[in-house]
């Protein structure tokens, strides 16, 4: 009898039960975010806020105030949610503005950008009044990059700009803050995706492999340099995507029709059809230091969640840079891999998306669905068929 009853408890019932458990409210004391509040984790600032009913205030996770009883605490995913409680902002942690650590990180990021040479970690930490280890940890939490990675990205952007402006390779090297050409050439290919001479020539003779496939969201083009995937483009017309790729790499040698490479497109299509599968591919991310900070923050947004431009700005320590955040999202040429579709307006409404608002909505809807209900990733069809 028991076996028969168990048999009636089929897979669909398990899925329903799992969804109900997922939607059930989690006690604050059992929520992983509460542990970060207890630890006064500064790296959690900007990720969420909490309010305390007995004191009538809302705080950031690192607030130094006396720990509240979790039974009186409510957690909030955005600052607007915290404000909607009607409580006042805490006078100790000032949750409405950037945290002290975010301010320090932003200040030092600016110092890196103004410096002619790459400052040492000790010099950066001293400028912020922190130990080297602590500063390194906080800077990465706020900007998404280590100080060394941030400085390297900024210098790479300066080299690219000088080369694009027509400067000689030698001038570009020293104007970007490199002390010797030897140190630059050790990193030049990884930094530029090609030799500096070739980059100065507009990427002449750089090989870009690509393939076009079909997904439920329309045509998709994936292109790679020797370093990694350099572009993922979406659209209706495959020929238009190829022309777009040509515009982005005007002097590169484009190589298409490779059956082996088409298998990689299938993996990207699989990510579109079933986001829970994930995608682990090397990327060739080309952008300014600021753009890379934004794009790293986008990659840190969990699947199934959205954030506002203002929240991304707070997370990277640039609370007034919402327009620049939007511009960085628009400049992203790695659709899906760098999930700019997870950024929405402050009121939750969809904002602009380079590949169309309908695709943005479709991607968000799929990411919000539980993995059990996801379609299988079998929708790939080569454009060569």
Can you characterise this structure?
The protein has 385 residues and is an alpha/beta fold. The protein has 17 helices and eleven strands. The strands form three sheets. Strands 5, 6, 7, 8 and 11 form a five-stranded mixed beta sheet that branches. The protein has a four-stranded mixed beta sheet with strand order 3-1-2-4. A two-stranded parallel ribbon has the order 9-10. A hairpin with a 4-residue loop joins strand 1 (49-52) and strand 2 (57-59). The longest helix is centred in the middle third of the chain and has 18 residues, at 147-164. Residues 1-25 and 370-385 have low confidence and may be disordered.
* Amount of helix: 40-55%
Number of strands: 11
Classify the secondary structure makeup into a structural class: alpha/beta
- Count of helical regions: 17
Distance between the termini: 54 Å
Unreliable residue runs: 1-25, 370-385
């Amino acid at each position: 009898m028991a076996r028969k009853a168990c048999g009636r408890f089929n897979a669909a019932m398990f899925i329903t039960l799992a969804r109900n458990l997922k939607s059930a409210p989690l006690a604050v004391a059992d929520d992983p975010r509460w542990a970060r509040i207890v630890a006064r984790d500064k790296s959690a600032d900007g990720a969420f806020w909490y309010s305390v009913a007995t004191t009538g205030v809302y705080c950031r996770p690192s607030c130094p105030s006396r720990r509240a009883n979790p039974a009186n605490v409510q957690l909030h995913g955005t600052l607007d949610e915290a404000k909607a409680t009607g409580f006042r902002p805490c006078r100790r942690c000032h949750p409405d503005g950037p945290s002290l650590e975010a301010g320090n990180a932003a200040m030092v990021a600016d110092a890196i950008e103004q410096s002619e040479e790459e400052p040492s970690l000790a010099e950066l930490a001293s400028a912020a009044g922190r130990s080297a280890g602590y500063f390194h940890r906080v800077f990465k939490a706020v900007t998404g990059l280590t100080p060394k990675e941030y400085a390297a990205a900024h210098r790479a952007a300066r080299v690219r700009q000088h080369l694009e402006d027509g400067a000689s390779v030698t001038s570009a090297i020293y104007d970007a803050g490199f002390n010797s050409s030897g140190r630059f050439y050790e990193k030049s290919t990884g930094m530029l995706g090609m030799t500096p001479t070739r980059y100065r020539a507009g990427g002449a003779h750089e090989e870009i492999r690509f393939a076009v496939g079909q997904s439920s969201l329309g045509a998709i083009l994936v292109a790679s340099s020797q370093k990694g995937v350099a572009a993922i483009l979406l659209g209706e017309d495959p020929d238009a995507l190829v022309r777009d790729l040509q515009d982005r790499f005007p002097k590169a040698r484009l190589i298409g029709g490779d059956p082996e490479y088409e298998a990689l497109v299938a993996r990207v299509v699989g990510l579109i059809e079933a986001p829970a599968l994930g995608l682990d591919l090397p990327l060739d991310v080309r952008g300014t230091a600021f753009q890379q900070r934004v794009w790293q923050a986008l990659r840190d947004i969990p699947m199934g969640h959205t954030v506002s431009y203002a929240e991304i700005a707070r997370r990277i320590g640039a609370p007034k840079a919402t327009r620049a955040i939007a511009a960085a999202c628009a400049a992203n040429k790695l659709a899906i891999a760098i999930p700019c579709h997870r950024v929405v307006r402050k009121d939750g409404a969809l904002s602009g998306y380079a590949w169309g608002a309908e695709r943005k909505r479709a991607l968000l809807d799929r990411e919000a669905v539980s993995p059990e209900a996801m379609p299988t990733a079998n929708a790939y069809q080569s454009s060569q068929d």
